[in-house]
């Protein structure tokens, strides 16, 4: 059974930082494409940062502020978020993708106050 367990969300003031973690189990980690998505109230889920084919990709509004990286030993994916702004407020979801199959975490809330 594939599981993605997220942690690290919370409440932070604008300008602050958070690091999200996602531990992946039940599937071979190395071949996976991984990423972080977010969904704000009333909006569609959007891609924030992904690692596809070994290359990181970022949504324009987070470039220079967020960094995605993975740890093959811990089978984990991280999202370091700096210089947070209120517009980053959303539920953040970890994603793993392999052979056309998508796996999702349960989501973790990030709230940024102005």
Could you please describe the fold and organization of this structure?
The protein is mostly beta strands and 114 residues long. The protein has strands spanning 3-7, 10-13, 18-25, 33-39, 46-52, 55-58, 66-71, 76-81, 90-98, 101-104, 108-113. The strands form two sheets. Strands 2, 4, 5, 6, 9, 10 and 11 form a seven-stranded mixed sheet that branches. Strands 1-3-8-7 form a four-stranded antiparallel sheet, with no helix packed on it. Strand 5 (46-52) and strand 6 (55-58) form a beta hairpin. The radius of gyration is 13 Å and the shape is globular.
Throw out a few tags for this protein.
114 residues; mainly beta; seven-stranded mixed β-sheet; four-stranded antiparallel β-sheet; 58% strand
Secondary-structure element order, as H and E?
EEEEEEEEEEE
Query: How much helix is in the residues?
Result: under 10%
Identify low-pLDDT runs: none
Form type: globular
Q: Main sheet? A: 7 strands, mixed
Strand runs, count: 11
Structural class: mainly beta
Mean pLDDT: 97
* Distance from first to last alpha carbon: 40 Å
Radius of gyration: 13 Å
List the helices and strands and how they pair.
Elements: E1 3-7, E2 10-13, E3 18-25, E4 33-39, E5 46-52, E6 55-58, E7 66-71, E8 76-81, E9 90-98, E10 101-104, E11 108-113
Parallel strand pairs: 2-11
Antiparallel strand pairs: 1-3, 3-8, 4-5, 4-9, 5-6, 7-8, 9-10, 9-11
Brief account:
This protein is mostly beta strands. It contains no helices and 11 strands.
